Amino acid sequence: MKTEKSDLNLNEVTTTAKELPPYSVMLDEPIKRGEQIINTITLRKPKSGELRGLSLQDVLQLDVNSLKKLLPRISHPTLTEQDVDNMDPADLTAVGTELVGFFVQKQRKEEAYL
Fold first, then answer.
1. In this model, does residue 107 exceed pLDDT 90?
2. Which runs of E-coded beta strand occur in 7-61?
3. Which of 23, 27, 36, 51 allows an S-S link to 11, with CB 3.0 to 4.6 Å?
């Protein structure tokens, strides 16, 4: 029995675990957007202005509506609110957990590792 493989998509964003840039999460369930397949999301630290309209408490509690508003502002490739709505819950939790790390001061992070 012959198994057909789909053509290699030039828009596919792939990374292995060893190659992950800082603040990146490899998704268990890739996001499919048209012909693009996203299997890794990289976050950057939000500026205060990017937190407008959001409650920090909700963000830190991984409130889905807050993540849906914030992730498109700080993710690469840029996610849409619909992408976040369609994410696997385990992937959303992993991305949210990575995001929470941005809200801890460097000194506190260092103290936690001592």
1. no
2. 24-33, 36-43
3. 36
> What is the length of the chain?
114
Output the six-digit token pair for 110.
């260092």
- Tell me which H or E stretch contains 76: strand 75-76
Q: Which two tokens stand for residue 86?
A: 């369609």
The single-letter code of the amino acid at 107 is Q
Asked, as a colleague might, if the bond just before 21 is cis with ω within 30 of 0, I would say: no
pLDDT classification of 10: cutoffs 50, 70, 90: very low
* Per-residue model confidence as pLDDT tens digits over 74-94: 999 999 999 999 999 999 999
Amino acid letter at 32?
K
